[in-house]
Amino acid sequence: MVARKIPVLFCVLLFSAPVLADGFKLVNREGRQAEYEGTLSLSGRVERRQDAETLDWRGDRVCFFPDAQAASLLPREGGKKGAWFCFSNHRAAMQQLSLASSPQGSCGLSGTATVAISHYTAETGTGETIDQAWLDKVVQQGPVTPIRCN
User: Fold this and answer.
1) Cα gap 31→49, rounded to integer Å
2) Which of 33, 36, 70, 128 could pair covalently with 66 via S-S, beta carbons 3.0-4.6 A apart?
């Protein structure tokens, strides 16, 4: 009887953790980019900002800001900026994360989610470089709320 409970307990603990990782492996380094393959599931905040300033420097992109535990699992190059990235499959990310249309008068949408990502590209340059990852799937998502304009 005890032998049957251990695998069940292990599965419950494994799949209830906020961060699940197979990890990333460096596969190519060229110029300012380091490309990683592998998979990672992580929790954090997702946002699509549409204010003029953000659109000017980052473009209309869906970005992810992992919680502290998940951020420690991301490949970091040169100890630069905070651990965040934008999704390279932007249109799919907008649809899957319900960020396709912002309410009138808002400057975007934000929410929390647990996502599975792959194909991570870390930008090693200084300045306004943005890491990217492929959104494989949305594991879990909290409510999406409008971002107030400043």
Assistant:
1) 29
2) 70
The structure tokens listed for 28 are 């190519």
| Cβ contact 107:147 at 8 Å | yes
Backbone angles phi, psi at 93, to 5 degrees: -65, -40
CB 16, CB 9: distance < 8 Å: no
Q: For 79-115, what is each residue's pLDDT tens digit?
A: 556 789 999 999 999 999 999 888 888 999 999 999 9
Is residue 114 within 8 A of residue 63, CB to CB? The reply is no
pTM exceeding the 0.90 threshold for the entire prediction: no
Q: Where are the beta strands (DSSP E) in 31-148?
A: 33-49, 62-66, 85-87, 108-123, 131-146
